[in-house]
Amino acid sequence: MRDFTARPEHGLVWISGASSGIGRALALKLAGEGYKVAVTARSHEKLVELQAEASGLAGSIVVLDGDVTDAEDMEHIMASIEYEHGTLAMAILNAGVYLPVHAEDLNRADFEKSFAVNLSGVVNCLLPAVRHMKAKGQGQIAIVSSVTGYGGLPTGAAYGATKAALINMAESLKFDLDKMGIRIQLICPGFVDTPATRKNAFPMPSLVSTDEAARQIAAGLKSQAFEISFPRRFTMMLKLARMLPYSAYFMLVNRVTGWRERPSSAGRHPVTPHPAE
Ligand SMILES: NC(=O)c1ccc[n+]([C@@H]2O[C@H](COP(=O)([O-])OP(=O)(O)OC[C@H]3O[C@@H](n4cnc5c(N)ncnc54)[C@H](OP(=O)(O)O)[C@@H]3O)[C@@H](O)[C@H]2O)c1
What we know:
Elements: E1 12-16, H1 21-32, E2 36-40, H2 44-53, E3 60-63, H3 71-85, E4 88-93, H4 108-136, E5 139-144, H5 159-179, E6 182-189, H6 195-198, H7 210-222, E7 227-230, H8 232-242, H9 246-257
Helix pairs in contact: 1-7, 3-4, 4-5
The structure holds NADP nicotinamide-adenine-dinucleotide phosphate.
The site of NADP nicotinamide-adenine-dinucleotide phosphate has 31 residues, from helix 1, helix 4 and helix 6.
């Protein structure tokens, strides 16, 4: 039996984190294919601009701004989708932040914000989405993780930890959601040229545009694959690297990123005092 695939006639697609980058490009792509797309983020003006840009397309954009870290906000958005705009056919849980972590200067706020947006933010959207899809016995959910979730990488202690958790979350949910008629998929992009990656001060191999990312994701959502990862060769290489013994994995990542040769700031900064000190 084929898993459920949401088509425009089934209802709305909800995309979180659609004011820029991958989410924005995907909203335009799906609206171009005739879907009615509800877009969520905190930047109301950017979402209204996106809606205007989609005005000539086959589908349409509905602006429902909100903060994914606010569970009540997400419940209200879900209610608005269901009772004012149609019915939820697909949810793409994409909102996320990338905060690089350097062990020389560990900062609690970076971990807490990453966990709040990337993990709790997904849960806050997932719960109402599953509840509504369960009542109908069908639906499609895609969680945006990252290839960073495959294995530890320099600066990824907070971001990578959230993305690894999302991979496990999607895998674990699949067992029950399959039985409920709800299809869950995992999206693991490599490097995509977005505002989030433009601040990276290192070369990004196999970087793709947001349009290419949207094209890959839109195709993957219609396929029967559990994981949508791209660009293919890059993500396969990372998966193979993760199968190496740890000693070889750490050596490889150090060599490819040149991380060992980078100067460490340990000892150069005064120790940040604990607030209690
Ligand atoms: N770019 C890459 O190379 C890459 C690779 C792998 C995975 N990813 C993942 O892809 C997703 C999109 O990333 P991107 O590169 O497109 O980043 P981006 O351009 O910075 O977009 C992030 C989106 O998330 C929204 N967002 C952030 N915090 C939010 C909050 N508290 N509530 C609601 N929305 C919030 C932002 O909107 P507002 O600021 O307006 O709220 C924005 O629309 C993320 O989950 C990221 O981890 C990206």
